[in-house]
Specification:
The protein is 26% helix and 23% strand. The protein contains twelve helices and 29 strands.
């Protein structure tokens, strides 16, 4: 962050490939910066001195210290940083430029990743451009090479994986294999985010990893209406973005997207090693597994052909734009399915809801059942099973399902699946972490008579949230376990210290396990 002491600085954002849009002119007493400065990431806007300028530079670590030490000033700065990012997201200014057809599966994937990561971006669709050929010639591209992404650095990426795009944008960087973290949190859903916030606010050195983006499944919810403290409801993305920014404020090191592929046995000092791909490693004194669950896929032939472009596992504004004016089908009967139906009903022409059981009330919150029953453009069919998908070239044209022994068919181009999830624990194979018959991680007494709450079969390795056997599959419950595990971490570190091991946190990180920093951990984000 930079505080302007004298002079004027013009802040601009890119508009398309060649345009520039002015945002604001900063003068003496103003400060420059937005959310990227919390983690020391690269800026996504340009700043040009229009006169002789003097500025006071605050590195990211000093900025975070200021936000925590000066509560009132910190609140004003934090709010400004958030609002500036929100403004960039709303205008679509700054960030990378995606060139490709708006309905191309990989364009949707790239847009979805950037949206979930809170990154502003722009889309140039050659099919909608008046000079599409000129656009392609400019970059020496053929139509078959799309999509491509033009990074702010000028680097051109051809249909990059999410991780490659993230590295180009500076969202992730190489991790120090020699550094030993106090805790590594695998998963950045509500449970992982809560653990990160509470652990970092108590002075622990926290590394948080996720193979996709922060927020987990909760981040895809269009509106959560039964979460404590939000009487008018809150979108999943708004909720998890608050938590993610809060984690950055307290100094959490976020490596997202970064996939953890294995957990090695601890050494004689109580330290663990996490594998990140074939070569990269990180070391930590404890591990918190919050890797959540993977969406369950429908068992019908040819499903993979239509995924991304026509079959969806979440309902966000991106998918809603694709379905505008159409009839869509939603399969499922849980709260996630209900929230999707309520959201889509306001965005599309009609919603067909297919429920395998005989009633919605057996698996869905009452408020959602009542809401759905009052929607005139929603048709609910119970005792229904999808039996087939029809279409070509990755585009869905119709679906078939059976009900009461009779097969039905309807022309539908977009299918939304919310049929449950399986625990994301395959990466733990060979780690020694015990799981139950369904793959959920055993903790507490189920893991061993001497194991503490949330501790797995492996001492120093904990599990929280949806991935834990016996957990309540609700956002509030996941957040509660994220807070609870920090006390378990302190107990583990105290045990290591009393045993003479150097596996405990460094001196500056030894915080009493009875410390309560909950009041200092509250950061509000404008809605």
């Amino acid at each position: 962050m930079a505080v302007v002491l004298s002079g004027r600085v013009l802040v601009t954002q890119p508009a398309g490939l060649d345009g520039v849009t002015p945002i604001v002119t900063h003068r003496a007493g103003n400060f420059m910066g937005e959310l990227a400065q919390l983690s020391g990431g690269p800026g996504i806007v340009d700043a040009t001195a229009t006169s002789h300028v003097e500025v006071l530079l605050l590195p990211s670590d000093r900025l975070r210290a200021l936000l925590v030490a000066e509560a009132e000033l910190g609140e004003q700065i934090m709010r400004a940083l958030i609002l500036r990012r929100v403004g960039l997201l709303e205008t679509g200014g700054g960030g990378p430029v995606i060139i490709g057809a708006a309905n191309h599966p990989d364009v949707l994937r790239l847009q979805g990743f950037l949206r979930r990561s809170g990154q502003p971006h722009q889309l140039l669709d050659p099919e909608a451009e008046t000079d599409a050929d000129g656009l392609l010639r400019r970059f020496g591209l053929a139509a078959g090479e799309l999509p491509v992404v033009l990074c702010p650095t000028g680097e051109l990426l051809r249909n990059p994986p999410d991780v490659r795009l993230a590295r180009c944008l500076g969202l992730v960087s190489a991790l120090d294999a020699d550094h030993v973290h106090d805790v590594a949190i695998v998963g950045a859903g509500p449970a992982g985010l809560a653990a990160a916030v509470y652990a970092a606010s108590e002075g622990l050195d926290v590394l948080m990893l996720d193979c996709r983006a922060f927020g987990g499944q909760a981040g895809y919810s269009a509106r959560i209406e039964n979460y404590l403290g939000f009487p008018t409801g809150v979108s999943g993305m708004a909720l998890v973005a608050r938590a993610y920014n809060q984690a950055l404020k307290f100094g959490v090191r976020a490596a997202i997207p970064e996939e953890v592929t294995g957990l090695a046995p601890g050494d004689d000092r109580g330290r663990f090693t996490l594998s990140l791909g074939p070569e990269e490693r990180v070391r930590t004194r404890s591990v918190v597994i919050a890797s959540g669950a993977r969406y369950r896929r429908l068992d019908v032939a040819g499903l993979e052909t239509f995924e991304a472009a026509s079959v969806h596992y979440w309902a966000t504004p991106l998918e809603a734009r694709l379905c505008s004016g159409q009839e869509v089908a939603v399969v499922g009967a849980g709260n996630s399915a209900g929230q999707a139906v309520v959201y889509l009903a306001g965005q599309v022409d009609r919603v067909l809801m297919l429920v395998r059981g005989g009633t919605l009330s057996a698996s869905m919150s009452r408020y959602l059942v009542d809401r759905i029953s009052g929607l005139g453009n929603v048709e609910v069919q119970t005792d229904a099973r999808v039996t087939g998908l029809e279409g070509g070239d990755g585009v869905l044209e119709a679906i078939r399902w059976t009900r009461a022994g009779e097969e039905q068919r309807r022309a539908i181009r977009h299918l939304f699946l919310f049929i449950g999830a399986d625990p994301n624990t395959d990466w733990l194979s060979g780690s020694g972490v015990g799981v139950d018959g369904k793959g959920f991680i055993l903790t507490g007494r189920d893991a061993g008579a001497d194991r503490g709450p949330l501790e797995t079969v492996r001492r120093g390795v904990f599990a929280i949230g949806d991935v834990r056997a016996g957990s309540t599959k609700r956002v509030a419950a996941a957040v509660g376990e994220g807070a609870q595990v920090v006390a378990a971490l302190h107990a583990r570190f105290a045990e290591l210290t009393s045993g003479g091991s150097d596996g405990a946190p460094s001196a500056e990180h030894q915080i009493s396990s009875c410390s309560d920093n909950s009041s200092a951990s509250s950061t509000s984000m404008p809605r």
